[in-house]
């Protein structure tokens, strides 16, 4: 429970399971474990009760770069909560392998890497560089599900 203690010491809370907005259904697994590999579906920021937290809209015209970066950080917490539910103990994570981030971006927005640093920085802060360092992509897209500002997926490795 070292990782959860670290999250708590940083003042963060892992949210409850994602709750779909009314009229929407999640028809996929949030986390899929296959041997020692863990595949994490695209997550976005959540409130503690599992509802979508936003911000919603395109960066930077509707959502500031700072708010989008915070959203990416909060997305890491949502992903960690789903991973914990799937594997039981976040201390089982032996390596963060890849992180794929999408930013709901205005045409020509080139700071997607800055936004995704919110996710990466939290992961490295919580897990340290040996486990938390990862390969990453950060792309801008014309739209994201439910108008989220960011959506992030990942692949990690766990100990048996």
Automatic annotation (TrEMBL):
<dbReference type="InterPro" id="IPR013813">
    <property type="entry name" value="Endoribo_LPSP/chorism_mut-like"/>
</dbReference>
<protein>
    <submittedName>
        <fullName>Transcriptional regulator</fullName>
    </submittedName>
</protein>
<dbReference type="Pfam" id="PF14588">
    <property type="entry name" value="YjgF_endoribonc"/>
</dbReference>
<feature type="domain" description="Endoribonuclease L-PSP/chorismate mutase-like">
    <location>
        <begin position="28"/>
        <end position="152"/>
    </location>
</feature>
<dbReference type="InterPro" id="IPR035959">
    <property type="entry name" value="RutC-like_sf"/>
</dbReference>
């Amino acid at each position: 429970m070292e990782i959860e203690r670290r999250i708590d010491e940083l003042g963060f809370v892992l949210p409850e399971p994602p709750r779909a907005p009314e009229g929407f259904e999640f028809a996929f697994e949030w986390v899929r474990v296959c041997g020692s590999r863990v595949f994490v579906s695209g997550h976005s920021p959540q409130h503690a009760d599992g509802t979508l937290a936003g911000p919603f809209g395109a960066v930077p015209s509707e959502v500031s770069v700072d708010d989008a970066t915070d959203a990416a950080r909060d997305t890491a917490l949502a992903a960690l909560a789903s991973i914990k539910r799937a594997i039981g103990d976040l201390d089982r994570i032996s390596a963060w392998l890849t992180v794929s981030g999408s930013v709901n971006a205005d045409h020509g927005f080139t700071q997607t890497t800055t936004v995704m640093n919110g996710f990466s920085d939290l992961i490295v802060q919580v897990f340290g560089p040996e486990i938390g360092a990862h390969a990453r992509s950060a792309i801008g897209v014309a739209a994201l599900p439910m108008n989220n500002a960011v959506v992030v997926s990942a692949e990690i490795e766990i100990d048996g």
